[in-house]
Amino acid sequence: MRTATAFVLSVAAWGLGLPWTGALAAAQGVSEQAVSPTPKVGWITLDGPLRSGPVPVAWLSEAEAGPSLSGVLGQIRKVTDDPAYPGLVVALEQAQLTLDQTTVIADALLDARAAGKHVMVFAESYDLRSYLLASAADRILLQHKGSVWLTGIAVEEMFLADTLKKIGVQPDFVQIGRFKGADEQFMRSAPSEAWSTNFDGLLDGIYGETVDRICRHRGWTRSEFEALFLPSFVMSDQELVAAGLVDRLVARDLAAATEAAFGDDWEWDTQLGVSGGAGLDTDNPFALFSAIFAEPEKRTTRPTLAVLHAEGPIYSGDSQLPDGFLSESTIGSRTTTRALEDALLDDNIKGVVIRLDSPGGSALASEVIWQSVRELKADKPVYCVIGGMAASGGYYIACAADQIYVQPHSILGSIGVVAGKMTLAGVYDWANIRVHRRTRGPGGDLFSSVDPFTDDQRELLRDAMTMTYEQFLDRVREGRGDALPDLDAVDEGMLFTGSQSIENGLADRSGGLNDALSDLAEHLNLEDGAYDVVHLPGPLALGDYLNQVLGGAAHGPAVAGMATLRATLRRVVGDAAYTQAAAVADGLMLLERERVLTLMPSALVVK
Q1: H or E stretch covering 366
Q2: Domain CATH code at residue 93
Q3: Are 20 and 122 part of one and the same domain?
Q4: Is 119 helix (H, G, I), strand (E, B) or coil?
Q5: Strand pairing report for 597-599 and 360-362
Q6: What is the DSSP string of 475-527?
Q7: How far, in Å, are 87, 153, 199, 357, 409 from residue 204 at the CA level?
Q8: 493 is a domain residue
Q9: Is 594 exposed, middle or buried (0-12, 13-18, 19+ CB in 10 A)?
Q10: What's the confidence (pLDDT) of residue 296?
Q11: Which residues pair with 397 in a beta bridge?
Q12: 504 in a domain, yes or no?
């Protein structure tokens, strides 16, 4: 059964089912002749991280590109909508899901249950995040002798002022927004009262949303659930059942549990609509060269909704795919505006959903994309769905949309700006490096690597940043309008969860990509099946992909060393945490070429 393709192992759909009778079929308004004679059940194995965006390259199929969030949601939706499927099992192997992905999948499981499907989640062990997903099921299954280790959440912040001083580096930053906190990790040894107030409120929201959601699904009060946290560490598997943390102990084949839930007349569905593509024929040189030089087909033939994927720090220029060396995906202003222009000029595209997950980045690039979104919005509706975060420049872009959808754990806000530099005079002295700097004209020494800002320079920089900050506020006012009744209550760098953002007006409603697409179709009077969905930017041709990836590869030992460091960091913290940390780190590197950033100051990694 588990000898299917590698993709099926990674995000497979297998089958299980409830007792299937003519009475059940009649109750669902479906004749026995209209359904498969043998009921099917889905089994989705979540193993590793899930890709959030579309297939990045033209020569791979969806299956060959690896498991994606949209693929998993599509499989759950197939079970939900098809009367041939009485139920679903989700097996958690080594799943590395972000909080927003966990919530989206949990919501899809709840929808399946509401449609009358029986949902079970199976794992060898559970922590708080995996338990959050499992709590959405009818039954939580645990392998015999498995464990449940529940703890609260924790975030560790590093303050580097003393370290930088020790090695001779003097950070010199200016921030606008008293809660922004962007300069604190470099210029302080401990958090300020304002930053602590900001961050504590965010953590309260994330923790409260997580625990309250589990309690709502499992029928506990918060105090009852929290009382099980640390004792869960030392409970035997039988005691975990007695405490109500899991519903049943099972063998890995789940035979007894599936027969109890679905009877003995069912069959596995190993695909749930997912199939592999033809792929790239590397044995045929003519096919290979054709793939290298062929442009991906970009054509719409009937009413269409477009999904624009924007993930990572925001840069001026072209978006980048993960290159395996220095960074994850980035949002490039040029790539993004071209995709928005394509949507605007295509008469078949009736509306756009932006799927956004960004800590921010370049203030200029954020403004360029904001203008493009507004230009499109003047002609076609634009909705925005927030993944993990839309912070700082990310929210700058989001506020231009007609509607903003969030997950409960999404992070929004950080409306503020930061600019500065690191002066290295102490490092130069330690290394006996003698720097001779030549300048011409006013301000030539503004970003000297030797000298900190003078008072006049700092005041000049603050004035320039204030202009950017006021522009940011104007964009939020213009974008949100009456939906945001009190901008003063959410600005100056404050951070909020998705649930808090709906309450204060930063966002409009809870939901994911499918919700936004459904609402947008209804707004446009498009009936189910009467429209297509395309994803932007389109996949790269092989030649463009190789040019992007290999074009930046020849940077010598420094890149190799950075690649080794990042690979080690990824193994230590895991893919989900690494992606968030790398996005913020890459954003901070923008200071090398852009002096004013709208960037969330730190990566929030909940473990």
Answers
A1: helix 363-377
A2: 3.90.226.10
A3: yes
A4: strand
A5: antiparallel
A6: HHHHHHGGGSS-GGGT-TT-EEEHHHHHHHTS--EE--HHHHHHHHHHHTTPP
A7: 35, 10, 9, 21, 11
A8: yes
A9: middle
A10: 56
A11: none
A12: yes
Query: Are 233 and 316 in the same domain?
Result: no
310 beta partners: 356
Q: In angstroms, rounded to a whole number, what is the distance separating the alpha carbons of residues 382 and 369?
A: 13
pLDDT of 32 reads 40
For 467-500, write each residue's pLDDT tens digit. Answer: 989 999 999 999 999 999 999 999 999 999 999 9
Give the tokens for residue 575. 């893919």
Nearest Cα neighbor of 358 from 349, 366, 368 is 366
d(CA 454, CA 447): 11
pLDDT tens column, 91-109: 998 888 988 899 999 999 9
Token match 């390259």: residue? 57
Element (H, E) at 218: helix 193-218
- Contact between 420 and 180 under an 8 Å Cβ cutoff? The reply is no
**AA identity, residue 328:** E
* Residues 6+ positions from 549 with CB-CB distance below 8 Å: 321, 323, 324
pLDDT digits (tens, 9 = 90+) for 343-363: 999 999 999 999 999 999 888
pLDDT value of position 17: 31
Give the rounded percent of residues in the chain with a pLDDT score beyond 70.
75
**Residues 437 and 503 both lie in one domain:** yes
C-alpha span between 190 and 450 (Å, rounded):
26
What's the Cα-to-Cα distance from 443 to each of 175, 217, 421, 461, 596, rounded to whole Å?
Answer: 20, 61, 15, 11, 16
Q: Domain range holding 40?
A: 6-150+228-269
More confidently predicted of 544 and 512: 512
How many CA atoms lie less than 13 Å away from 411 in the CB half-sphere?
Answer: 33
Q: Shortest CA distance to 512 belongs to which of 406, 374, 390?
A: 406
Angle at 529 between CA 523 and CA 532, to 5 degrees: 75
* Amino acid at residue number 137: A
Cα gap 588→308, rounded to integer Å: 25
Is pLDDT of 307 > 60? Answer: yes
Is 403 part of any domain?
yes
Shared domain for 346 and 443, answered yes or no, is yes
Residue with tokens 């459904």: 518
527 and 484 within one domain? yes
Task: Report pTM.
Answer: 0.76
State the total domains in the chain. 2
Contact 466, 384 (CB under 8 A): no
Half-sphere exposure (Cβ direction) of 467: Cα atoms closer than 13 Å: 7
